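Suppose you are handed only these lines of text.
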Amino acid sequence: MQYQVLKKSSFNDFIASLARIEKVVAPVARGYNTFSFQEVKDGQDVAVKYIPTILPPKKYFFPQREKLIEFNKSAGTLEALLEYEKMVIFGVHTCDLAGIQCLNMVFSDKPKDINYLVRKNKIIIIGLECNEYCDQYASCKVVDNHLPNGGYDLFFTELTDSFIVHVNTIYGDELIDKTRLFNPAEQIHLDQLEAVRQKKREIFKDEVKVNHNDLAKLFDKSFDSKVWDDLDARCIACGNCTNVCPSCYCFDMLDNLNLDLNTGDRTRMWDGCQNEPFAKVAGGENFRKTRGARQRHRYFRKFKYPVERYSRYFCTGCGRCTRTCMAKISLKETINALVDSKEEKK
Ligand code: SF4
Ligand code: SF4
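From them, the structure of the protein bound to iron/sulfur cluster can be written out as follows.
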């Protein structure tokens, strides 16, 4: 059966029984309108209605700091490290599912990132549908990510008294069997699901002045736009926007030598293109010296370059960059400004 149903009254038991089988992480309230993915033991800890978490679930697939190698000079040894943890991530919205799909493509590309791929295979993903917009910053319709498009083992949609659950993989099916709380969906549930989707088609309208199919073309003609000058003046280069982005995957490497001057490790950590030294090379040259150039690069890495390489946008529409920006730089406003500046040139 492709669709199963879980009564809302059984939700706490579901999370509790999952937590007895595996480590479970889910969105948890962290203060006023702030959420983060963290370990839960019971359904009462889970924020079923939440706006995108401060950091996306990417942190479990691609940790902020990761030791890759340990070395011992005198022994002449070099050991590759691979740390992973089996877990279930509950409550991943469609935008963050898309973010994980982007990372899957990047880290499966040559040279394959074995650490990422092994870790990814140990994690079961349970998606959760947003029946309406999270908030005004969400831009999932800009990139047509407001409806589920794979990338999960199970996918929950809230109905009146229950959740209807799409079973997408054998791992998801096994969880259904192990927890013994689900029943096969009946026609009435499928009708309710269709009603939710129909309502979403009405709620989620075009949020910017360009259709998602034409975004890449817009960026084809926007390299010299004056919009980047405006962002140059406003951006304070804090790097928040790239730190919170579910599809940003740049990292730096650091070799740490211990005080014995003999042993040490090589660690990778997140890096971001908004940091001034990011594009600095030997000799002191910096290919993206100005904040405007770095902002342009960030947008092109979402809407142009990945389309050429992976045939998809790398913006997932989560809205985190806009939500977190201290300079109030808005993704939707930037896209509209690019459309307007193109119109003015005609
Ligand atoms: S660019 Fe902004 S809206 Fe798009 S995926 Fe990254 S953080 Fe989310
Ligand atoms: S969050 Fe805003 S101010 Fe900070 S680097 Fe990004 S665009 Fe610039």
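What can we learn from it? The mean pLDDT is 96. The chain has 13 helices and twelve strands.
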